[in-house]
Write a structure and sequence with these properties.
single chain; about 240 residues; alpha/beta; Rossmann fold; 2 domains; four-stranded antiparallel beta sheet; about 30% strand
Length: about 240
């Protein structure tokens, strides 16, 4: 199994606050990997570090063995890294289709853009039905589909997702996780996801990293982590 993303000895902090300390990890190609840990562990900061949205003190980040540590976000997008950030991330006053096209602004080939848009509509048929509606008129689940669809427009090798189920009803969370499995297969992409609905997500994910107080304390297949002592210690009662 080849690695698509490698992080070596990463240190990140905000002023006097050290958030990540000597983080090293490898993300396998074409897998769904979960980055998990208690609140305040540094999970979102780690995702933002990969996308160069925070100041990195030391360490290196490699995409397919090429260093990308200092690359700005627009260059990372061109190299095949997309980021679905936490919370409300759509352009409310743009239509669904206009939102999707924002994810392809760096692509000059109109035929390719049209093809990617069709792939997104096939993945999320409801977006095609509502393609001319303003994003702010959509339900929470549909807005999340738009955000993910926009990220998929650039044909990412690596898709970073920060709490995609946040604020969604349990039924929609289940549907979202099913879609994530389909996306991995249909778009031939690797997914690294921060998520609080761990019990459900671990049923469909391949690998898990446990981050506590800014340090990776465990890395293993999800099937091995589910009943492990470290999971019970970090997430007391959640997996009983």
């Amino acid at each position: 199994m080849s690695e698509i993303l490698t992080i070596n000895n990463l240190d990140v902090g905000y002023g006097d606050l050290q958030v990540l300390s000597d983080v090293s990890m490898e993300v396998n190609r074409n897998e769904i990997s979960i980055l998990m840990g208690p609140n305040g562990a540094g999970k979102s900061t780690l995702l933002k570090s990969i996308y160069n949205l925070v100041d990195i003190q030391s360490g290196e980040i490699l995409l397919e063995e090429e260093e990308i540590t200092a690359d700005p976000a627009h260059e990372l997008l061109q190299k095949g890294v997309s980021f679905v950030s936490q919370g409300k991330v759509n352009f409310d006053r743009l239509s669904v289709e206009e939102n999707l096209l924002m994810g392809a602004h760096h692509i000059e080939n109109e035929k390719k853009i049209k093809s990617k848009k069709q792939e997104v509509y096939e993945q999320f048929p409801v977006l095609k039905e509502k393609k001319n509606e303003y994003a702010f008129n959509l339900s929470g689940g549909q807005q999340q589909m738009v955000a993910i669809g926009r990220a998929l427009m650039s044909s990412p090798k690596l898709l970073l997702m920060d709490e995609p189920s946040l604020g969604l009803a349990p039924k929609l969370v289940k549907e979202l996780f099913e879609k994530i499995v389909e996306i991995k297969k249909n778009f031939d992409t690797t997914i690294l996801i921060v998520e609080h609905n761990l019990k459900s997500l671990m049923e469909i994910a391949d690998h898990g990293f446990v981050l506590v107080e800014g340090e990776i304390i465990a890395s293993d297949k999800c099937e091995n982590l589910k009943g492990s002592e470290v999971m019970h210690k970090v997430f007391v009662g959640e997996f009983d």
